[in-house]
Amino acid sequence: MKKVKVGLVQMSCTKDKQENLDKAIAKVREAAAKGAQIVCLQELFTSLYFCDVEDYDNFDLAEAIPGPSTDALQVVAKELGVVIIASLFEKRAEGLYHNTTAVLDADGSYLGKYRKMHIPDDPAFYEKFYFTPGDLGYKVFETKFAKIGILICWDQWYPEASRITALMGADIMFYPTAIGWATDQDEETNQDQYNAWQTIQRSHSVANGVPVVSVNRVGFEQDGAMKFWGGSFATNAQGKLLYLASHDNEETGVVELDLDQSDFMRKHWPFLRDRRIDSYQPITKRYIDGD
């Protein structure tokens, strides 16, 4: 049977980039000590979530990929023999920036990167100010332990993105995320939002017959106006929750995924082979209204 242990690092961040990197490395070590073979860090883990404001000074947080953070993490990946999924603010060129995730294999090699495709522009999530939409397309990475697909936060709402990633052969889909509640909201709204977030990602697991691992940050930011809701989770190939983190605490969880379940689920719930691909051309239209 093909099984792999994945680590989910849910943590709070500070203004100190080096402190956050050091903390993440310590958490990777903790996950590896618990048996993790692939460790996923949350979206933009080296900083506070800076996209709550449009501030040109925040571009100073960006770095090249490969660059200083991936260099440090490659050493750790090789030492521990683990795959590391690292979401970083990429400076591609002068004035050109992306929200990017790097993948480092268990031998310390740099396998490549995925640039976030869907970029939000909501109150307190002004990402279009900072990030150019990804131009690498959807990606899968052949690591030592599994072929993994990476999507980032806002990508999580789009079944098209998860479907394409699954069709490229992903054994597991990983979602580094940063999402939270405005602290002036009522509890019912909070739960409705979290449930929608979890449900859409679990549905990607069901529709595609692959495990999903979603890793979110936690803690209060934006001078207390935002509570990042944690709630990181992992599912099996049928969308069943195998691990669920709290809304309040830092956690380093490790869960074993049975990758052979994908074949079983796809045979018994044959959503992939029953797809009517000959009928899907209209999906590329912005809206189907005759224009």
Automatic annotation (TrEMBL):
InterPro entries on file: Aliph_Amidase/BUP, C-N_Hydrolase, C-N_Hydrolase_sf
Record protein name field: Acyltransferase
GO MF annotation terms: acyltransferase activity; N-carbamoylputrescine amidase activity
Top-level taxon: Bacteria
Family annotation (SUPFAM superfamilies): Carbon-nitrogen hydrolase
Keywords: Acyltransferase, Hydrolase, Transferase
A Pfam family recorded for this sequence: CN_hydrolase
Lineage of origin: Bacteria, Pseudomonadati, Bacteroidota, Sphingobacteriia, Sphingobacteriales
Biological processes, Gene Ontology terms: putrescine biosynthetic process from arginine
Database matches in Gene3D superfamilies: Carbon-nitrogen hydrolase
Domain CN hydrolase: 4-259
